[in-house]
């Protein structure tokens, strides 16, 4: 039995689970997180918050990130085992699955960062276009004034 912490990542930051919960394995911790998500999403919606960007970070007793469970994953697909039953795997294979889980978390974070970068780039392009439009209008107004003199 292992102590797992279910930190809640929201748009406002990370809400740390200081008490945690003892589960027999990571698979059980994942399924417990999936069962909790619908009620949390409903509560967030009632409070006027957007749960789409929220996720559980499942961490062990040393605060090492083991798995990230995005709320949207629970809504878009039925929770099921993310990996084969650990008892049937060799330690080497289990280590590979653990690495895959960490890579999935890293990819999820990279995707979120890319979305944020695209949003910022889009805002910058809009500002540049507005500036170009203002400069063109100013130049045309200056040209008209100069021509009428």
Please characterize this protein's 3D structure.
This is DUF6894 domain-containing protein. Residues 3-71 form the DUF6894 domain. It holds the Pfam family DUF6894. InterPro entries: DUF6894 (IPR054189). Keywords: Coiled coil. The protein has 149 residues and is an alpha+beta fold. The chain folds into 2 domains: 1-82, no CATH class; 84-149. The protein is built from 3 helices and 5 strands; from the N terminus they run βββαββαα. The chain has helices spanning 26-46, 71-76, 91-147; strands at 2-10, 13-15, 21-23, 55-59, 65-70. Strands 1, 2, 3, 4 and 5 form a 5-stranded antiparallel beta sheet that branches. It is elongated. The termini are far apart. The model has no long low-confidence stretch (mean pLDDT 83).
Structural domain count? 2
Share of helix, binned:
55-70%
Shape: elongated
Number of helices: 3
SSE series: EEEHEEHH
Count the E strands. Answer: 5
Main sheet? 5 strands, antiparallel
Structural class designation:
alpha+beta
Low-confidence stretches: none
Please report the distance between the alpha carbons of the first and last residues.
88 Å
Mean pLDDT: 83
Organism: Methylobacterium soli
Coiled coil: 104-131
Pfam family, one: DUF6894
Keywords: Coiled coil
């Amino acid at each position: 039995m292992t102590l797992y912490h279910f930190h809640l990542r929201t748009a406002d930051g990370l809400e740390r689970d200081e008490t945690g919960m003892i589960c027999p394995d990571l698979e059980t911790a994942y399924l417990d997180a999936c069962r909790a998500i619908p009620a949390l999403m409903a509560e967030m919606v009632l409070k006027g918050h957007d749960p789409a960007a929220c996720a559980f970070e499942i961490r062990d007793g040393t605060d090492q990130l083991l798995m990230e469970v995005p709320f949207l994953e629970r809504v878009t697909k039925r929770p099921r085992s993310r990996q084969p039953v650990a008892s049937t795997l060799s330690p080497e294979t289990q280590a590979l699955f653990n690495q895959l889980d960490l890579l999935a978390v890293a990819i999820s974070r990279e995707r979120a960062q890319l979305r944020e970068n695209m949003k910022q780039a889009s805002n910058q392009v809009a500002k540049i276009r507005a500036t170009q439009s203002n400069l063109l209008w100013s130049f045309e107004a200056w040209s008209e004034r100069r021509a009428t003199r």
